[in-house]
Design brief:
single chain; about 100 residues; mainly alpha; 3 helices; elongated
C-alpha cells in the first residue's frame, strides 16, 4: 500500500471522539487506522448497494424491452397527431357530460 499523503479533517462530538479513541485503544491501533478501516468498509457497502441497484435496473429494463414495439394501433402517424386526438376525445367527453 502506498504511503498516505492526503489529510481529511472533520469535526466530531466529544463523545464520538472518546468512543473512537477507546475503540482504537481496545484494538491496539491508532485512531487513523481505525477510521481508515471504518471508511473503507462504509464505501465498500455503499458500492455494493449501488451495484445491486444497477443490476435491478438492468433486469427491469431487459424485461420492459421485451414489450417495446409490441403495441400497435390502427391510426397511422398517431404520435404526430396526439394533440389533435386528445383534444377531440376531450370534446366528446364534454359533449356527453352536458
Amino acid at each position: 500500500m502506498p504511503g498516505k499523503t492526503e489529510v481529511y479533517t472533520w469535526r466530531v462530538s466529544p463523545a464520538m471522539k472518546a468512543s473512537l479513541e477507546e475503540a482504537a485503544r481496545n484494538q491496539k491501533r491508532s485512531v487513523a487506522q481505525l477510521l481508515d478501516e471504518i471508511v473503507a468498509e462504509g464505501l465498500g457497502a455503499a458500492e455494493k448497494e449501488n451495484e445491486a441497484e444497477i443490476n435491478t435496473q438492468r433486469r427491469l429494463h431487459a424485461r420492459a424491452a421485451r414489450f417495446l414495439g409490441c403495441m400497435t394501433g390502427g391510426v397511422a402517424r398517431r404520435s404526430e397527431r396526439t394533440r389533435e386526438l386528445v383534444r377531440a376525445r376531450l370534446k366528446r367527453r364534454q359533449a356527453r357530460a352536458r
